[in-house]
Amino acid sequence: MSLPSAADLLKVQLRHAWHYSRRVLQDLDDQEYFWEPTATSWSIRRRAPSVRGWGSGEFVCEDAWPAPVPLPTTTIGWRVIHLAAWTDIYRQYGFEGKRPDLNDFDIPGDANAGLAWLFRAQDDFIGAVNQVTDAVAFELRPAHWGESLPVVQLVTSMLAEHVHHIAEIGAVRDIRRGHARTYIPPVSMPIPPSWFTT
Predict the structure, then answer these.
(1) Residue pair 57/66 in contact by the 8 Å Cβ criterion
(2) How many domains is the chain partitioned into structurally?
(3) For residue range 74-120, what is the model confidence (pLDDT) as tens digits?
(4) How far apart are alpha carbons 198 and 196 in whole angstroms?
(5) Does the residue 176 lie in any domain?
(6) Would 188 be classed as within a structural domain?
(7) Residue 171 lies in a domain
(8) What is the domain extent for residue 158?
(9) Three-state DSSP class for 31?
(10) What pLDDT is recorded for position 124?
(11) Where are the beta strands (DSSP E) in 99-179?
(12) Which residues contact 192 (CB under 8 A, 6 or more apart)?
């Protein structure tokens, strides 16, 4: 039995983490998506003079630069859109030679459309990483912040970002539902066949 290559390990880790993320996001509706855990939460809001953030359309993902200290708590919707946009940006910079900006994105205004964007961004990112071989894994590629990094570092950075925010989403869902002690595991989801093959 031959050992998996570095590129194969990278692909399986990414697919496994993102398959798990979809379990965490199962049955998410608008009520949970927009629930504000604190009075000063950042969220997805209709564009207005008082709303600071990014996006090109009717809705804005609240944000500020420089970032306030401490950072506001964010809604699940904010986290979903944050992940979707940055997954696309990492992919386009590192694999497509493009230079997108956050204000290029038309922010969806509901949970279904937000999740559809995130899942499409994940699938596209996995599609790009599927082309990575061991020879390519350590090639330098541009990152959106200006430096060039090995492909493996760009991919693991995106992986860490997903694990971080999906864990936050799971915690926010438990807090809102208040049933951490009586949690019923979600129904098992089939694994997309291409996600665990190399």
Answers:
(1) no
(2) 1
(3) 999 999 999 999 999 999 999 999 999 999 999 999 999 999 999 99
(4) 7
(5) yes
(6) no
(7) yes
(8) 6-183
(9) helix
(10) 96
(11) 140-142, 148-150
(12) 19
The answer to whether the pTM exceeds 0.90 is no
Q: What is the DSSP string of 6-22?
A: HHHHHHHHHHHHHHHHH
Radius of gyration of the chain (CA): 18
Percent share of the chain, pLDDT over 90: 66
Residue 197 pLDDT: 58
Give CA 46 to chain center in angstroms: 21
Q: In the beta sheet, which residues pair with residue 44? A: 61
With bands split at pLDDT 50, 70 and 90, how would you rate the model's confidence at 164?
very high
In this structure, is residue 198 part of a structural domain?
A: no
Length of the chain: 198
> CA-to-CA distance for 102 and 157, rounded, in angstroms?
18
Helix or strand run (H / E) with residue 148: strand 148-150
CATH number at residue 49: 1.20.120.450
Look at the block and give the residue holding tokens 């790009």: 128
| Look-up of token digits 């926010």 | 172
Do the beta carbons of residue 74 and residue 33 sit within 8 Å?
Answer: no
